[in-house]
């Protein structure tokens, strides 16, 4: 039987752009296992798990994860890494797609993997989504945020 660290290292291998085996990745999870993209408040279960990998690879087909530190703490594997790739596909947003820029990304990330009996029960990915967006040229629109806050504040002051 593989160690928990070996299972996690295999998960990273299967999610590389030059390998991309979503079904193999999914097979490493328990039946009810979850993949949580924490910064984007998204949870993937079952057949959604390979779709999450395919979605990222469609935007960054050469996606690579550079593992910096891997620590096994019982049934928990903590990993510090960098998600790297080239923005060659449309990046979906609630307001439409950001066209490919050709920009490289190098996103600091921390992953926590919780395993039970050699299978992944929960995978929590904490990627610096703000860094990724800035690297593809999608900087925050602070002007709109300030205007929205002013409108909300005006509405609140009329209630008091």
Automatic annotation (TrEMBL):
UniProt-recorded name of the protein: SnoaL-like domain-containing protein
Gene3D superfamilies in UniProt: 3.10.450.50
Residue ranges of every copy of the SnoaL-like domain listed in the record: 21-120
Database matches in InterPro entries: NTF2-like_dom_sf (IPR032710), SnoaL-like (IPR037401)
